[in-house]
Structure formats: structure tokens, C-alpha cells
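Input C-alpha cells:
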């Protein structure tokens, strides 16, 4: 039975494997050069105290590879949907389900075995892509401090594997209900994008209560280097938050206080209040979000199994 499963999905699996191999060649070759340049540049700039421009020096010629890295955000949804949507829908379109379900293998075992193998393939593919991206992004994470930000968070760590399983389960469920592969693909991809946007925009920032920090006016380079995920910022004057146009942030002239603009604002009691998720919560957030999508995938597979039992065959 397992051999039959792989034969039926061999085109999609071969295409995914070819894409993974090509991606790995590009990322490993570029990443080895990038990591070497990073170590050499770090040693040089630490000695001269000029590390502020190291990120720009390393990545100003890597636009194509960076674009390829960012494009992997759609990978889990595509591979999951393309493996999941045809799993049942194709059998129903071709009416082969009527023959399959009269054999010795039960409908439940047939479905769960196929779902397990192809779901595992989607997870392994997305996990391998995420591992390559995470490794390549090492110097960028160290210099840019943005791995917790939306966009980077979604393509590194363990969450891409959970996204792929969710997309796969969504494709399977759409296929069981729609009984048409093309329709199931469209529904799975649209649903995947919608749920991902909902979680990223509204749910993820609220996984844990955010922290706040009141800092003196300025560029806050030290704060930026901590790698926190900033959710919002607002001025605060002597303990009173500035909202709308109810207060005006004072713009003091040099003649008024004989200090720099930022120093004048600080002397007037102005603080910049940051609302953020600390970088220390990065892996906690990865685990929470992965758990959400794994739970959704399990619920969808359960719905598919219940729906499949009601299908005539």
C-alpha cells in the first residue's frame, strides 16, 4: 500500500525534491561564502570599531538570494496544498474510490495511511527548507536582529513545518468536501493565506502580554540590537501618554536649553514608550504558533475522516 501511495504522488514528490535540491545548492554555496565573509568582516571591524556598516557591506550584493529566501514564505502552503488536495478528491473524480473501498483495506486505514505518508513528506520538505534558511540567516540575524519580526519569524525555526502540515490537512479536507482537485487546491491556498494573515496580524502579538519600555528620545540603537519585536511606540510626556492631537510634543530650540534636540526633549520629560515582545520569547512563540497549526491540522484530518465515512462508495 505504501508503494502505491508513493507511485500516485511521484510527480508532485519528484518536483518538490528537485526544487529542494536546487534550493539547497544555491543556499549552501552562497551561505558558505557569506558565513566566511561575516567572520572575516567581524574580526576586521571589531579591531577598527567600524561594525555599524557590516550588514550593508555583506548583503548589498545579495538581493537575488535574499529575494529567494523571502519567497520561501509561500513554500509550506504550496507543497502542503498540492500534496493534500488530490489525496481524496482525485479518487472521487476518477471514481476509483468505489473500487478501493471494496478491498480488504478499510476506508479508515486507507485514508490515514495516505495522509500520514504524504503529510510527513510535506513536513520534511518544509522543515528542510526552514533549516537551510535558518542556517543561511545566521549572519543576518546577528547583525539585523530581526528574526522575531513578521516575515523572518515565518520562514525560520520550526513553524514552517507546522504550516505545511496545516496546508496539507486543509487541502485534504477541501478535497473530501468539494470532490474536485482544482477546487480543493484553490480553497486550500486561499484558506491557508487567510488563516496565516489572521494569526500573524492579530493572534501572534497576543500570545503573551507585551512588555513596555520608556526610553529617552533618540535613535535607540542599543534597544534595536536586542532583537525585540516592537509592536508599537508612542511619546509620553512626564508620565502622560500622547494620544491623537490632545497633546503636542515640545519642539525646543537650541536657544531655549542649549542642548541637542534629543537632549532638550529628554529634559522636558519626553519619553518614547515601546510596546514589544522580548527576544527571549522567540522560541516560546515558535512553539505556541506551531502548536496552534498542528491542532488545526489534527482537527481538519478528523473532520475529513468523519466526512469520508458518509461518502457513498
Amino acid at each position: 500500500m505504501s508503494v502505491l501511495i508513493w507511485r500516485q504522488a511521484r510527480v508532485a514528490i519528484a518536483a518538490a525534491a528537485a526544487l529542494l535540491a536546487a534550493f539547497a545548492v544555491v543556499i549552501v554555496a552562497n551561505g558558505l561564502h557569506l558565513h566566511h565573509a561575516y567572520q572575516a568582516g567581524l574580526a576586521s571591524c571589531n579591531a577598527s570599531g567600524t561594525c555599524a556598516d557590516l550588514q550593508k557591506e555583506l548583503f548589498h550584493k545579495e538581493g537575488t538570494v535574499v529575494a529567494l529566501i523571502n519567497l520561501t514564505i509561500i513554500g509550506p502552503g504550496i507543497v502542503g496544498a498540492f500534496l493534500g488536495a488530490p489525496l481524496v478528491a482525485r479518487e472521487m473524480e476518477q471514481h476509483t474510490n468505489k473500487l478501493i473501498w471494496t478491498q480488504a483495506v478499510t476506508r479508515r486505514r486507507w485514508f490515514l495511511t495516505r495522509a500520514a505518508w504524504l503529510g510527513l513528506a510535506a513536513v520534511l520538505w518544509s522543515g528542510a527548507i526552514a533549516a537551510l534558511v535558518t542556517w543561511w540567516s545566521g549572519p543576518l540575524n546577528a547583525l539585523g536582529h530581526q528574526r522575531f519580526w513578521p516575515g523572518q519569524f515565518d520562514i525560520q525555526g520550526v513553524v514552517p513545518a507546522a504550516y505545511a502540515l496545516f496546508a496539507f490537512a486543509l487541502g485534504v479536507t477541501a478535497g473530501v468536501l468539494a470532490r474536485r482537485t482544482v477546487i480543493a487546491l484553490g480553497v486550500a491556498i486561499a484558506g491557508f493565506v487567510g488563516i496565516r494573515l489572521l494569526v500573524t496580524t492579530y493572534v501572534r502579538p497576543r500570545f503573551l502580554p507585551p512588555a513596555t519600555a520608556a526610553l529617552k528620545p533618540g535613535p535607540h540603537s542599543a534597544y534595536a540590537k536586542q532583537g525585540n519585536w516592537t509592536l508599537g511606540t508612542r511619546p509620553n510626556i512626564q508620565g502622560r501618554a500622547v494620544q491623537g492631537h490632545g497633546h503636542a510634543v515640545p519642539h525646543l530650540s537650541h536657544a531655549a536649553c542649549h542642548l541637542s534636540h534629543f537632549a532638550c526633549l529628554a529634559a522636558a520629560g519626553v519619553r518614547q514608550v515601546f510596546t514589544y515582545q522580548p527576544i527571549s520569547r522567540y522560541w516560546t512563540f515558535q512553539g505556541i504558533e506551531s502548536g496552534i497549526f498542528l491542532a488545526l491540522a489534527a482537527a481538519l484530518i478528523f473532520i475529513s475522516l468523519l466526512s469520508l465515512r458518509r461518502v457513498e462508495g
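The beta strands are 211-215, 229-237, 240-241, 270-277. The chain has 15 helices and four strands.
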